[in-house]
Structures
1.
Amino acid sequence: MKPIYFNKPHLTGKEVSYMEKAVMTGKISGDGVFTHKCQAFLEARYGFGKALLTNSCTDALEMAAMLCNVKEGDEVIAPSYTFVSSVNPFVIRGAKIVFVDSAADNPNMDVTQIEKLVTNKTKVIVVVHYAGIACDMDTIMDIAKRYNLLVVEDAAQCIDSFYNKKALGGIGHLGTFSFHESKNIITGEGGMLTINDKAFTERSEIIWEKGTNRRAFFKGKAAKYEWVDVGSSYLPSEITAAFLMAQLEDMDNIQHKRIRLWKNYQKHLHKLAAARNIQLPHIPGFATNNAHMYYMVCRSGDERAELIKYLHDNGIQGVFHYQSLHKSPFYKNQYHGAELPNSDRYSDCLLRLPLYYDLKQREVDYICEKVIEFYKD
Ligand SMILES: *Cc1c(COP(=O)(O)O)cnc(C)c1O
C-alpha cells in the first residue's frame, strides 16, 4: 500500500484556467475582479460585515492588531495552545500576552478562566476556534462587553463553520482566516480579514493599502491619493484570488467529502476511545463541525510517540500539533502566569490523523484498524 500522508492539497480543476484569465485581463495586482468576486461571495454566504483578502492569516492578524490600536503595555488574552501567529502580531506592537489554559474536554480556551485574567490594561481577547469547532462565543462576547474589550477571532481553521447559526469569524469585532495549503479551502498562501464592526471598515481599507486612501480615491470619495495612516502591503494579487475563486465554487463538494471522512473516523474510533480513556473531538451543541481536522488525545506523551511510530511503520503519517506558547523559547522568560496543565497535555498528547479531500474511505478504515490494533492488549 502507498504511504498515507498527513495532508495533500486538493485542486478542483479550475484553478489554472481562472489564473490564466486573471493574467490575460492585464490587471494582475490586487483588488481587481477576482478579489471583488471572492469577497462578495464570502460576505454573502457568511454574513460578514466586510471581507478583505490578504496574503495570509498572519497578515490579517497584523491588520487586526493595528486596527485595535494595540500599544506598548496593553494586555491581550489568548490561548497558549495555538499557532504563534495568533499572538505574534500583538507582541510586535508591544503587548503583553496573558495566556489562558485550554478546556479539559477540548483544546479551545477554557472560557471560565478568562474573566479573572482581565485587568485595566486588557485591550483584546484573541479567540481561536481549534479544529474549526467554535468556542462559547456568548460567554466571551459578554465578558468583552462588560469590560469594553475587543474580540479578534483567529478563525484560520474555520471556513464554513458556525456557532449557533452564526459563521465563525463573523461574531467578534474582527475575524481572520487562512487559505494556507493545510486548510480546507486553499490558495497556497492566503488569508482574509473580516470586519464585523462598522467602526473599523474605513480604516481597514487604508491599512490594507499601505496606509494610503487609494481605495477611497478610486471610488471617487477622496480628492487625492495620499498617505493617511499606518499600513502595509496586505492584499494578494489577482492570481491568488483567481485560484481562491475556483476553490470557493467547489466549497460544498469539498466540505461534504471532508465531513464524510471525519464521520468515518468517529464511527471507527469512538468505542476504543471510551474503553481506553482516549479523548476524541467534542462538538458542543452550539457548534458545527467543518471537518478541518481529526485528532485524538493519547494518555501520555510516550504513548503518543509510540503510536506515531506504529502508524509510521504501517505507512501512515500522524502528526502532533502546537507546543504551549507560554513555555516557548521566545516567551517563557516573559511569562509569569499560572501553570496551564491542559494546554501542556494537548502539546504532549494530541495526535492528528490524515484528513484531506483525496483521502479514501478505505484508507480511513485502514488507519483506524491500525490505531485499534495498537491499543490491543
Ligand atoms: C494556519 C493558522 C494560522 C496561520 O495561517 P497563515 O495563513 O499561514 O498565516 C494562524 N492561526 C491558526 C489557528 C492557524 O491554524
Note: The chain has a mean pLDDT of 97.
2.
Amino acid sequence: MSIVSIPVIKNQHPKLPTFDMDQIAFGKNFTDHMLVADYENGEWKNVQIKPYAPFEVDPSCATLHYGQTIFEGIKAFKNDNGEVVVFRPDQNFIRFNTSAQRMQMPTVPEWLFIDGMKQLINLERDWIPNKPDASLYIRPFMIAMDPFLGVRPSNTYKFMIILGPSGPYFSAPMKIIIEQHYTRATPGGVGFAKNGGNYGASLFPVSLAQENGYDQVLWTDAIEHKFVEEVGMMNVMFVIDGKVITPSIEKGTVLKGVTRNSAIVLLTEMGYEVEERFLSVAEIVDAHKKGLFQEVFGVGTAAVVSYISRLAHGDYVMDFDVNALKVAPALKKQLNDIRMGNIVDKHGWLLHI
Ligand SMILES: *Cc1c(COP(=O)(O)O)cnc(C)c1O
C-alpha cells in the first residue's frame, strides 16, 4: 500500500507557543492536532488530521454502554541530534488488530495506523521534549459509534490518534501487594487485549491496596491465585538466583508487552538467562526465605522500567533496596540508550520520522 497523504486542517490557536515543557504531566496535556477516521459501510474513510478538540457522541453510543473500545500506548523520542524516533510501533499495530478482533471490531490498515501516526507526529515534532525520561506519548484508539442500545457489534467506529508530551511516569519505587481475591484476566477472557473494560475493572482492587499503603497489586491467576501474572498495568520480571523470570503469555491472561519482549531480547544479549514460564507465589516466597530473591520490577511503555521496593503476600513482606538493584537499572539504561541513539539500533526497533 502506498503512503497516502492525509488532509490536514491546521489549528489556528496552537497551544505550543505558550506551553511550558517543564510542567508536563503524563496524560494531561495534548498536542494541537489529532488524527480521526470513520468506519462506515465496511471501510475506513474521512481520514483527517485536525485541531485537537472535543467531539459529540449520541447518548446511546454503543461505546458508552457496552465498552467496545480498544487502545494502544506508544512513545516517540527526540535525541540530542533532533532526530525523532518511535519505538517499535509495528508491534503495537499488530496488537491493536489482535485486540480489535477479540472485541469484534474492524481491523485498521497499516496506512492508517502507521503512516497516519507518522504524519501526525511529523506535524507535532516541536511538541516532543528532549529531556531524560521524557517523550511524546502516542495514544491510538478505536470506539464503537452506533447510536443503538442493542447488544451487538457496532457497524460504525471511529479510529483516532492523540498525542501528549510526557515526563517521567511513576518515578518513585512502588510498594506492591500480591492480589489473592480479585482478578485482572481469566483464560478465555480478554486479558491479552487492550480493551477499556480491563482497566475499569482494575480500579476497585487497586483502591483497596492503596487503602492498605500499597501503590499497586501483583495480579495472580484467576483460578487459584497461585501464579503471578502482571503488576498493575505492566508486565513483571523477577530476578531469582541470578536468573530473570517473567510470567508466560501462553494462557492469554498476560498482555504481550512490547517492553516485555524487548527486555527479554536485551537481557539475553546482556548475558542473563531469561525464562518465560509459570511462576508461583510459593516459589517466590521460598526463594526469598533462602536469600535468592534479588529483584522484582515492572516493564511497560508508560513507565518503561518501574522499580519495586516492597512486595507483600498477606503478612509476609519482602523488601528490596532499590539502590542495590543491578538488572532493572541496566535494562532501563539499555532501552534508553537505544531510544536516544546512543547505541546502534541493531534490531531495527526505531521508526525514524
Ligand atoms: C499496555 C500493557 C502492558 C505493557 O505493554 P507495552 O507494550 O510494554 O506497553 C502490560 N500489561 C498491561 C495490562 C497493559 O495494558
Note: The domain at 174-339 is CATH 3.20.10.10 (D-amino Acid Aminotransferase; Chain A, domain 2).
3.
Amino acid sequence: MGTKDLKFNSKTIHGGQYPDKAYGAVMPPIYQTSTYAQTTPGGHKGFVYSRSANPTRSALENALASIENGQYGLAFASGLAAIDAVIKLLNPGDEVVCTNDLYGGSYRLFKRIFSKYGIVFHFVDMQVPGNLEHYINKRTKLIWVETPTNPMMKIIDIKAVAAIAKKYQMLFVVDNTFATPYLQQPLDLGADIVMHSATKYLGGHSDVVAGGLIVKGKALADRLYFIQNASGAVCGPMDSFLVLRGIKTLHVRMQRHCENASYVANYLNKHPKIQHVYWPGFKDHQNHDIAKEQMKEFGGMISFIPKGSNIDETIRIVEKLKLFTLAESLGGVESLVGHPASMSHAGIPKEEREKVGVLDELIRLSVGIEDKDDLLADLEQALM
Ligand SMILES: *Cc1c(COP(=O)(O)O)cnc(C)c1O
C-alpha cells in the first residue's frame, strides 16, 4: 500500500519514505555532500549538485508533501526563505492581500524588502472574509493568510477565503506554522500553497531553523522549484535530517501541546490577576465556531494581558517565570514565554502593532509538553 493511503498519525512516520537505496538505512542518511560523481557527462543517479537536490532534503520534502496532503514539498533554509520564494512568483506592480495580524518577520520582509521592488501589500482583518474583497483589484495576485494569527489567536475561515481567491483567480497561501497539519490541512480546504516555519512545531525541539512549502499542482511546484534553485536558500542535509526526525513525533507532541495549553488557558482565564486570555478554545472566543470546524484541537499557543494593563507587571511576570523560558520562537517541547512587542513583533511599528491588539502589556506562551502541574505551579508563583 502506498503511503498516500495512510492515516495522518502514520504519515508523520512513513509518508513518502523508503529505506535508503545504498544500505537499507531506515532513517535517511545525512548526505553531507555538495556534489555527486558522474560516470559520463550527464551520467548521474538523479543528484548533480546539492543546491538543486540532495537525498536527505528530498526525503524531508517527500515527508512535507505527505503530511500536508500535497504532491510536492520544498525545504528551505528558514521559514522566511520559504516566504521569500513565494513572493518571488510575483512581478513589480502586483498586489498582495495579507492578514493584518502577521508574524513580525513576514511583515518586515513584505514591507522593507519586497515593497522596494514594487510589490504592494495590504494588511486586512480577515475575521470577516468578505472584508478582503474591498482590497482586490486587477493587480491583486495573491492572498496570504496566517491562522491562528500570531499573537492575537484570531481564526480565519480558510474555506471562505479559498472561495474568494478562486473567484478572482488569485494564489492563496496559508502559513500553517501555528496549527501544523495535525490540526488543519489547508490544501484540502482550498489553499494553493502551504508554508511552514519548520523551526517551530515540525522540528519541534528548538534545535534547527528551516522552512517548507507544499503544493498540489506540478506547474506551481515547478515554478517554486525554479526559484528555490535559482535563489539558493535551500535546507542543508543536517537540518533536513533534524526536521524529518521531528516530524516523526509531530502527532504525539501536538496532542500533548494542545492538552497542556487547554489546562493553562483555563487556569489563566480564572486567575484574578489576568485581564484577558486569547485562546480559540474558549466558547466565547469570537472565532470559536470556525476554529472548531476547521481545526482538530486548538493548538499550543496562548496570549494574555495581566490585570491593570501595566507594562511593569508584564515585565515582572515574564522575568519571574522559570520553567517557561523567556525566549524567541515557539513550538518546541519546552515551554517558552515571549513579549511580542519587544521580541517577535518588534519589527512592526508601534501604531501598526497596537491597531491589531499587540499591546506592550501582551504576553505570549508557547506551552510545551512538560507535566501540566509543573507548568501551572510556575505560572502560580510568577503571578503571585
Ligand atoms: C517563525 C515564523 C516564521 C518565520 O520562520 P523562520 O523559520 O524563523 O524564518 C513565519 N511565520 C510564522 C507564523 C512563524 O512563527
Note: Residues 301 and 366 are 5 Å apart (CA to CA).
